[in-house]
Amino acid sequence: MVRKKKNRKKKDTEEVCEVFEIEKKGKEKEKKVCNVMEKKHATKEEIKKQNKTLRNILIGLLIIVLLIFGTIYIINSAKSFTYRGTTGNVVKKGDIIFYQFSFFPVKYQGKIVTYNIYIRNDPRKLDKIPFEGEMDFGAIFNKSYHILAVNISDDFTCEGDKQGDDIISLANMINLKAIGIKVMRDDNATCDPEGRYMYINIKEGEESKITQIGKSCYDLIVKDCEILKVTERFMVEAFVKYNEQINAS
Q1: Which of 119, 127, 110 is nearest to 176 (CA)?
Q2: Which of 39, 92, 119, 234 sits a CA distance of 20 to 30 A from 21?
Q3: pLDDT tens per residue across span 61-87
C-alpha cells in the first residue's frame, strides 16, 4: 500500500539575527542570537492603502511644482507684456507704473539708437475704448516723416485728480516721432481728404472712443476727461500698425 504524502505549503521565512555584547569573567564578548521568523505579506487592503498614499504624495509634489512654475510665470508677466504682436516692459518709477515700448533702430541726433516710449495705461486694458475704423498712416512710408496735426479746443481742461492730463497727453504724443510721425498742434487744421497728413480732433463727448472720419483723420472723443486713456489708445494702435507694416516690408 502506497501512502500519499500530504503537500504542505511552505511558509516564507527569514532569519533574523541580533548581536549582543556580554561580559564574562571581565572580558567582553559578542553573542549572536538568530531566530527564524515568518515573512508577513501585505494584504490587498494594505496594498490599496499604500498605493493611495503614494498617489497622494505624487499629486502633492505635482501641485508644488505647478505652483513654483506658476509663481515664476506671474513674476515674469508682471515685468513684461505682449499685445497684438508688440512686446514691452512694465517699469516702475517711484509710485508710478509705466508701460514701455521700444523701437529700434531710430535715428536720433545722427546716431542709430533704441527709442523708448512710456505710457501710463496698460495697453491690454485700453481695448475697452472703441476704435471705429483703422489706423491709416497715409504717406508715412514714402517720406522721412509724416505730420500729425492735433486740433484741441483751448477750453478743454481737466480738473480734480485728472488735472494736467490734457498737457501730459499732448506731450506724450510727441513721442510718436519714434515711428516717423511729427506731432504738431494746429487748432485751425482740418481733415485732408487726400491723406497728405494725419489729423485728429480731440473733443468732449458722452463716450470715450476713437472714430475714423476720413483718410488718416480721426475724432478722439473724451468722456469725463479720459484724455490720457484715449490718446494712449490711439498711440498703441499706431504702434501695432507700425509693427505690422515693418514686419510686412
Answers
A1: 119
A2: 39
A3: 888 888 887 776 666 556 888 888 888
Residue-wise pLDDT for 155-197, tens only, equals 788 888 888 898 999 999 999 988 888 899 998 899 998 888 8
CATH class of 126-248: alpha beta
Distance CA 137, CA 159 (A): 33
93 versus 183: the higher-pLDDT residue is: 183
pTM greater than 0.85: no
Q: Give the angle subtended at the CA of 210 by the CAs of 207 and 212, to the nearest 5°.
A: 135
* Separation of first and last alpha carbons in the chain: 106
DSSP 127-172: GGS-EES----TTGGGSS-EEEEEEE-TT----GGGTTHHHHHHHH
CB neighbours of residue 122 within 10 Å:
15
- Give the residue extent of every domain in the chain: 45-80, 126-248
